[in-house]
Amino acid sequence: MKVKALPGLGTTIDVILVNGRISVGDTVVVAGQEGPVVTQVRGLLMPQPLRELRVKVSQLHTIR
Q: Which of 59, 58, 22 is CA-nearest to residue 42?
């Protein structure tokens, strides 16, 4: 998991979901430095299909 700030989007978390589903509106709990952080999923961003992930890409697909 990686936390970063994207211009125009605010604070985002990069995760790799191996087994399961996550949807907009789901409640998630993550470990923070000062205890658990409870929040709702407001949007899901996916890289374009068949694109190299290490290259910065300005286009992201939004899943709603």
A: 22
User: Does the pLDDT at position 15 exceed 60?
Assistant: yes
How many domains does the chain divide into? Answer: 1
Tell me the pTM.
0.63
Separation of alpha carbons 8 and 36, rounded Å: 26
CATH code where residue 57 lies: 2.40.30.10
Q: Is 20 left (phi over 0), alpha (psi -120 to 50) or beta?
A: left
CA distance 51 to 38: 32
